[in-house]
Amino acid sequence: MSKLFVFIVIILSYTGVQAQTLKSFEDYNTRGYQRYLKGDYEGAIADFKLAIDLSSRLESKNEIQRNNLTESGERLATNTIRVIDPRTAIAYTNLGITRLAKGDADEAILDFNRAISISPALILAYYNRGAAWLIKMDFEHAIDDYSKTIKLDSKFAEGYAGRATARLDKGDIEMAFVDFNEAIKLKPKNTHLYYLRGDAYRRSRDFDKALDDFENSIKLNPQYAQPHYGRGMIYLEKGLLDSAIEDFTKALRLDGRLSLAYANRGYALLLQGKESEAERDLSKAMSLAPNLYSEIEETVKAIKERKK
After folding, report:
1. Is 213 part of any domain?
2. Which terminus of the chain has fewer CB atoms gathered within 10 Å of its CB, N or C?
3. pLDDT digit string (tens) for 223-260?
4. Where residue 275 sits, what CATH number does that domain have?
5. Quick one: average pLDDT of 263-277?
């Protein structure tokens, strides 16, 4: 799978929906969002589940008919049924996003499926399900979901960027750049889109264009960590170890959760013969992302073989 950072969008609010439990739903949804930002994924999951419970309720069949509500779910008693508020789809989407952040793509997909079954036109449910498929390396399903977002909104730049990433991983490089270019045309001031296209150029070994995109990303937002990381990767591949370490350090100063920045700074330090410093970085990378263990082990072995 691509080492691109999967861009997920959590939904803070949903306007235009009237319901009796609006305040309670918003309270739990907002607190879940805040916990998600802090990395408290278990707390966020608990809050989004409460938001789901509060945004659906029991009604009598007569009340459903009187209010022209949509019936959904199983009948719970002779004259009652659970009514699913459209905001439930928002909570399911946020729940799926949080599970995705925890690395549980399978459960996340189930949550996105539930959201889509409630609100078939909810773009961000398709978009984030595409991200989950991408993590699972199911590129066809990812492309299909990103294409659905574009069908729902032809100006949804992130949909083009997501499809570009899936196409790149699939090996369809030409069409990937068509999509990246369209995304940037739609949002020319979006720092993340320049980073994504820059990383695609880097992976295609067009380092000059990659550096241009990383520089543009940094100019738009100097506090955004990823383009510093991307530029560091180019310096690392060119053997410019001091410059690579400097950029990885900048990235980590801006976002200390970037496991790949720790890993690649560790590789650069190891190539410089600074084994104790390298070991600290590599251990930190594995503590942040245990799934990197095998990759780090293999890379360290290759570096040590090369230095013999």
Report:
1. no
2. C
3. 999 999 999 999 999 999 999 999 999 999 999 989 99
4. 1.25.40.10
5. 96
